Amino acid sequence: MRRSKRSASIKSVVAKHNTLIAVSFLCCAIGGCSHGYDQKEAERYIRESESAWAESVATGDGSVVQRILADDFIGVDPKGGLYDKAKMISETADGPKYFASNHLNEVKIRFYGDMAIAQGNESWERKTGERGRFVWIDTWLRRDGRWQIEAAEDLIAPEPTVSPAQ
Fold it and tell me: What is the SS3 assignment for 121?
């Protein structure tokens, strides 16, 4: 029974995320995607913020999370569990116990009016020597002139292997 509650909860978050995207597309289509901000500056801010969040996993700097996550933020962790801003701030402080490093590899950002979708991945190493990647998608919203992450979904993936030259 617990599994079905989790599935229902995750489906609810995904449905809300998809609804948010659909509404944003509709607003963009109706409003002609006019926005009152410098898109290059917004992209720079989002890219730097994503990099700072990745680094905070190993440094434990909760101020990054406090700044970039919206108060009503909701995330889905790699095991399918839900987390909010308060939980993320708390877990960030504990990160250095487990992670030696975590670095942003790449992020692609697309804008839809006052919404941006950031898709990326980062490489981490645990204190045990284990290595892997987080692969994620973050939904950013611009409210009151400020960009913040409203929703996130994270996966764990192995590091890509480099094949020898043939």
Answer: strand
Tracing tokens 């289509």 back to the chain, one arrives at 29
55 secondary structure, DSSP code = H
Residue corresponding to tokens 């692969």: 135
Dump pLDDT digits (tens) for 71-114. Answer: 999 999 999 999 999 999 999 999 999 999 999 999 999 999 99
CA–CA gap between residue 101 and residue 126 (Å, rounded):
7
Going by the DSSP 8-state scheme, the letter that residue 38 receives in this structure is -
Give dist(CA 78, CA 118) in Å, integer.
17
Q: List the strands of the sheet with 146-157, edge to edge.
A: 82-84, 69-76, 146-157, 131-143, 115-126, 99-112
What CA–CA distance (Å, rounded) separates 109 from 48?
Answer: 12
Q: What is the pTM of this model?
A: 0.77
